[in-house]
């Protein structure tokens, strides 16, 4: 039985895919937030010269 054209076959595909996309979005936002602290830790930090790559992407 289809409600608004959505069948169970669609749900078996859409639910895991949407969960993956939400998880990827949250992970990307956390990575973006953590880049504010890049090379600023007193334990792992180092002096970065102009033009050098950061210690982690």
From TrEMBL:
Entries under InterPro entries matching the protein: NDUB1
Highest taxon in the source lineage: Eukaryota
Any one GO cellular component localisation term in the record: mitochondrion
A family per Pfam: NADH_oxidored
The protein's name: NADH dehydrogenase [ubiquinone] 1 beta subcomplex subunit 1
């Amino acid at each position: 039985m289809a409600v608004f054209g959505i069948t169970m076959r669609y749900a078996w595909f859409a639910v895991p895919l949407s969960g993956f996309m939400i998880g990827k979005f949250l992970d990307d936002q956390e990575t973006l937030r953590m880049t504010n602290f890049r090379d600023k830790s007193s334990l792992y930090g180092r002096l970065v010269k102009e033009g050098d790559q950061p210690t982690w992407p």
